[in-house]
């Protein structure tokens, strides 16, 4: 079931749903303009959020920004008919997608080419009721490279290109006056183009960038909004892990042993599953 929430005076959200890989969508509402963060994975996804905003009497979005090109964030774009801001690579990739004739064969070919994954194909089938010819992709029309600020009247959204392992075009959106940082999927591991991976250099650089904002609330697209304390507590474990990988290289046993001792785990206590998985991703990210 879709779940909606006004997370602050100026920010409305539709939370992520995991069944068909819907990320969260957010509307940042200033005195004179509303910015939509991500378009959704389909017309149905987009329409559900638009209906909620309408019902709340919120000023409808005037402009949209895409955090990166992945289908779940961008395929709802056409439903909104809005000026859309995107990083240059996001725009290039979506231009390519917009030229495709979408159907089961096309999606099958994209899976074979590792542009998307089998899991993505299944999520698309579920979201589009089994009919992939219903997919409509449009390209964004406001393109930036490093930074762009959007002034909404009393609120400024700073959009910044950060890249990283998950997608080469990842951007974050900082709502300055509220101290809320939307991370998109930037901190996640890579999901396409071969085994899932994290590279230590990219991951640690990205953490530095994120920490430098000193945000009060942080929102990952497939998670829930969290306080700075919660976020740092969670992410610090990955930072420790990345540093052990720098130290030990391709020696997952040594990485795990030292990570366990840094986390203060007792001998009979299992390493949390997400970290055990992440060790594998970091190993995949090491140079051969
Ligand atoms: Zn993504």
The CATH superfamily label of the largest domain reads Metallo-beta-lactamase domain
N/C terminus separation: 44 Å
| Main beta sheet strand tally, sense and closure | 7 strands, mixed
Low-pLDDT runs? none
Pfam families: Lactamase_B
GO molecular function: hydrolase activity
Keywords: Hydrolase
Function: Counteracts the endogenous Pycsar antiviral defense system. Phosphodiesterase that enables metal-dependent hydrolysis of host cyclic nucleotide Pycsar defense signals such as cCMP and cUMP.
Question: In short, what is this structure?
Answer:
By secondary structure, the chain is α/β, with parallel strands linked by helices. The chain has helices spanning 43-56, 71-74, 77-80, 88-98, 104-112, 118-127, 200-213, 228-248, 252-263, 273-284, and strands at residues 4-6, 11-14, 25-29, 34-37, 63-65, 84-87, 142-144, 147-151, 156-161, 171-175, 180-184, 217-220, 226-227.
What brief labels describe this structure?
288 residues, Metallo-beta-lactamase, Chain A, 2 domains, seven-stranded mixed beta sheet, 39% helix, Metallo-B-lactamas, RibonucZ/Hydroxyglut_hydro
What do you see in this structure?
It is a single chain. The protein contains 10 helices and 13 strands. It has helices at 43-56, 71-74, 77-80, 88-98, 104-112, 118-127, 200-213, 228-248, 252-263, 273-284; strands at residues 4-6, 11-14, 25-29, 34-37, 63-65, 84-87, 142-144, 147-151, 156-161, 171-175, 180-184, 217-220, 226-227. Strands 1-2-3-4-5-6-7 form a 7-stranded mixed sheet. Strands 8-9-10-11-12-13 form a 6-stranded mixed sheet. It is globular and about 55 Å long. A hairpin with a 4-residue loop joins strand 1 (4-6) and strand 2 (11-14). It folds into 2 domains: 4-193, Metallo-beta-lactamase, Chain A; 237-284, no CATH class. Bound molecules: zinc ion (ZN). Zinc ion binds at residues 68, 70, 166-167, 185.
């Amino acid at each position: 079931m879709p779940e909606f929430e006004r997370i602050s005076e100026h920010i409305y959200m539709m939370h992520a749903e995991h069944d068909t890989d819907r990320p969260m969508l957010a509307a940042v509402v200033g005195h004179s303009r509303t910015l939509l963060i991500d378009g959704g994975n389909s017309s149905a996804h987009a329409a559900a959020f638009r209906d909620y905003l309408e019902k709340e009497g919120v000023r409808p979005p005037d402009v949209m920004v895409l955090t990166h090109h992945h289908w779940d964030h961008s395929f709802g774009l056409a439903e909104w008919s809005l000026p859309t801001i995107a990083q240059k690579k996001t725009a290039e990739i979506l231009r390519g997608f917009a030229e495709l004739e979408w159907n089961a064969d096309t999606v099958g070919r994209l899976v074979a080419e590792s542009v998307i994954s089998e899991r993505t194909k299944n999520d698309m089938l579920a979201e589009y009721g089994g009919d992939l010819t219903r997919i409509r992709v449009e390209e964004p029309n406001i393109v930036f490279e490093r930074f762009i600020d959007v002034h909404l009247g009393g609120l400024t959204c700073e959009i910044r290109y950060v890249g990283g392992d998950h997608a080469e075009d990842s951007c974050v959106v900082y709502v300055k006056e509220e101290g809320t940082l939307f991370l998109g999927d930037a901190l996640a591991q890579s999901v396409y183009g071969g085994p899932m991976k994290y590279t230590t250099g990219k991951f640690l650089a990205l953490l530095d960038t994120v920490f430098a904002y000193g945000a009060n609330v942080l929102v990952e697209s497939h998670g829930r909004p969290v306080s700075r304390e919660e976020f740092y507590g969670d992410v610090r474990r990955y930072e420790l892990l990345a540093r052990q990988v720098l130290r030990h290289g391709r020696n997952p046993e040594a990485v795990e042993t030292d990570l366990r001792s840094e986390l203060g785990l007792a001998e009979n206590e299992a390493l949390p599953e997400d970290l055990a998985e992440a060790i594998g991703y970091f190993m995949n990210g090491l140079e051969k």
